[in-house]
Amino acid sequence: MRLVALFRYRVALHFVFYILSTFFTILSIPAIIPLLEMLFNEKLQVAEKPVRIGDLSDLVATGKYHFSSWINGMERPEALLWICGGLALIFLFKNLFRYLAIYTMIPVRVGISAYLRQRLFDKWLLLPMAYFSDERKGDLISRMTTDVQEIEYSILSTLEALVKEPLLIVGSLTIMIYTSPQLTLFVAMLMLFTSVVIGGISRSLRKQSGEAQQRMGSLISIQEESLSGLRVIKAFTAEHYVRERFHLVLDAYRRLLIRLHRRRDLSSPLSEFLGVTVVCCLMWYGGKLVFDGQLSGSVFLGFLYAFFNVIEPSKALSSAYFNIQKGLAAVDRINEVLDTEANIADAPGAARIDQFEREIRFEHVSFRYPGQQVDALSNIDLVIKKGTTLALVGASGSGKSSLVDLIARFYDVSSGRICIDGTDIRSLNLANLRSLIGMVSQEAILFNDTVYDNVCFGRRGYAEEQVWKSLRTAHADQFVAELGEGLKASIGDRGMKLSGGQRQRLTIARALLRDPQILILDEATSALDSHSERQIQEAMTEVLRGRTAILIAHRLSTIRHADEIAVLREGRIVERGTHDSLLAAGGDYSRFVSLQSFSSLE
Fold first, then answer.
1. Nearest Cα to 568, choosing from 365, 360, 361, 359?
2. pLDDT tens, 415-434?
3. How far apart are CA 86 and CA 40, in angstroms?
4. Residue pair 562/554 in contact by the 8 Å Cβ criterion
5. Nearest partner of 477 among 505, 500, 513, judged by Cα
6. Half-sphere exposure of residue 298, counting CA atoms within 13 Å on the CB side?
7. CA dihedral sign, ordered 499, 501, 507, 509
């Protein structure tokens, strides 16, 4: 309902048009009785004209008196023409206002769907990295696509039924009560029985719908993973394994969907059968009243017409109830994302830092990934002076990437603190903090866009010469020039038109273009051959001069000239020093260098 409030003026107009449409629908019920009386060769009853109009019944009697007097004063063909023309006019206005109600509702349905997708996407960008390590990308995509679509079709499309049908039912029941209270009471008892039967079917629908949407998320996840890893699937001839895995999830989803649709689609035929049963009982009972002279035939047929105007809205409300139960499961899944707390965010009154002046300091820092039992980092004390290069060395899983991720606040420390120039980074403006940092990760992450937009990613206004300068520094200018369209060339999905080394050079150029005060290179040259790596190392010697840099690398050539080297083992710093001092110590670093030298000989 909060979403509907965003479009309250259109929704209000929608309600007004549906009220008018319903008014003319209800008006058609008493308007058809004169037509039936004429067809049955009955003379319209002339009611006594009330002496005064004291209540609604007096007003109705007065109207009936004037209408009867006017019709009875005409020839029958002429009166029939007037009655048919009036009925046609009533149905014209009924359908005109119905279309206007639908017309005003379409922007609301589309607008709410777009708003939900926008909210979900904005939330994704705000959520911490830890959230995405627990969730499957395909399931998140499913929530933005199929779940939002389910809300539009199941809830928003039935909103009109929640407005129009109750009004129509109330109006029709009012006329039925006015026509024959005895017959209306009989119908009400039958309708109560049918509503109990139909309502019993829908109890498990919402739960099954939620399960179906979760399975759809799993299907999309498998599709996304398979497309991303198609090269690996083919290389390991794992097509059969992946196919069976997909078919298993698809078959479970298919069987669940069959049960779900069977249960949902049962409402319409069951409602129709029960409705016909009620009509048969009504015709039997009403026929008895006609035979006994308690009701005229034309009035009874008018009552039946009013009753049918209750049956159809009742069926529509029944279907709406089923659809809403299905849609509410999608609402729950979307709210799971929207209600997730973004625990890495700006603190109240977060300070800005536009210049890195002195040092980055780790003070007794420990960190554990959510849901894990062991610390990824334990009691880290480390100082990185401005203008120096720190190299992090250690086996895979020793905590190197975790350490640099904490500086950019992709995660927050579990204990201790990280300070820049004496200020805890948790009290700094997050966007401002990250603007100081340039990062190149081991995985070259690029987007389906031009070379220019990938290098300038996140910022606009760079001159082409600035972009070419960063490309030259990263030794990427030559292959970009050979692409034909140069900076305007599209690099394909995830940069698939480029080789692994070319993709990595573009990410290095992207980091250098921002001229960051703190540069983090996480295995940045791992995808390059020795010749390309040597060229980039030479070029970056100038780039790193006077700049604070943190390098994660396994290659000796990348780390030996660092101002300080920190060796990590199982989340702890076990050695620190320069290349020469650590070699002399004969510890972990010395063994690492020995392995590197042996590998280079091979």
1. 365
2. 999 999 989 999 998 888 88
3. 19
4. no
5. 505
6. 16
7. negative
pLDDT digits (tens, 9 = 90+) for 102-136: 888 888 888 888 888 888 888 888 887 777 777 77
Measure the CA–CA gap between 513 and 515, rounded to whole angstroms. Answer: 5
β-strands 437-440, 423-424: how paired?
Answer: unpaired
DSSP character for 42? P
Distance set, CA 538 to CA 327, 474, 527 (Å) = 60, 10, 17
Task: Find all residues with CB under 8 Å of 122, minimum gap 6, and list them.
Answer: none
Specify whether the CB–CB gap between 496 and 454 falls below 8 A: no
Opening angle at CA 550, ends 544 and 552, nearest 5:
115
Query: Which of these, 566, 543, 569, 540, lies nearest to 553 by C-alpha position?
Result: 566
Contacts of 600 (CB under 8 A, 6+ apart): 556
List Cβ<8 Å contacts ≥24 apart for 525-531.
Answer: 525/553, 525/555, 525/558, 526/442, 526/553, 526/554, 527/444, 527/500, 527/501, 527/503, 528/501, 528/504, 529/501
Dump the DSSP string for 284-322: HHHHHHHHTTSS-HHHHHHHHHHHHHHHHHHHHHHHHHH
- Measured from the Cβ of residue 191, the count of other Cβ atoms closer than 10 Å reads 19
In the sheet where 415-420 sits, what is the strand order? Answer: 377-385, 359-367, 415-420, 423-424
Which pair of structure tokens corresponds to residue 429?
Answer: 């403006």
Band of pLDDT at residue 200, cut at 50, 70 and 90: low
User: Cα(41)–Cα(572) distance, rounded to whole angstroms?
Assistant: 102
Give the C-alpha separation, 514 to 543, whole Å: 12
Sorted by sequence, the CB contacts under 8 Å of residue 320 that are 6+ apart come out as: 158, 161, 162, 165
pLDDT above 70 coverage of the chain, percent: 78
pLDDT in tens, 519-540: 888 877 666 667 766 766 666 6
Question: DSSP secondary-structure letter at 431?
Answer: H
Distances (CA, A) of 341 to 142, 337, 412, 498: 20, 9, 14, 38
State the Cα–Cα distance between residues 455 and 512, nearest whole angstrom.
9
For residue 176, give the H/E element and its range.
helix 159-179
Residue type, 428: L
Question: Which neighbouring-strand residues pair with 377?
Answer: 367
Look up residue 451 and give its two tokens.
């070379």
The amino acid sitting at 360 is I
Cβ-contact 582, 589 below 8 angstroms: yes
Instruction: Report, in this order, helix, strand and coil percent for the chain, each rounded to 5.
Output: 65, 10, 25
Amino acid 367: pLDDT: 93
* Predicted structure pTM score: 0.67
- The pLDDT of 299-327, averaged and rounded, is 73
Dist CA 369 CA 402 (whole Å): 9
The DSSP string of 325-372 is HHHHHHHHHHHHHHTS---SSPPTTPBP-----SEEEEEEEEE--TT-
Residues 6+ apart with CB under 8 A from 244: none
Average pLDDT, the chain: 78
> H or E segment at 393?
strand 389-394
Higher pLDDT: 562 or 202? It is 562
d(Cα 579, Cα 582) in Å, to the nearest integer? 5
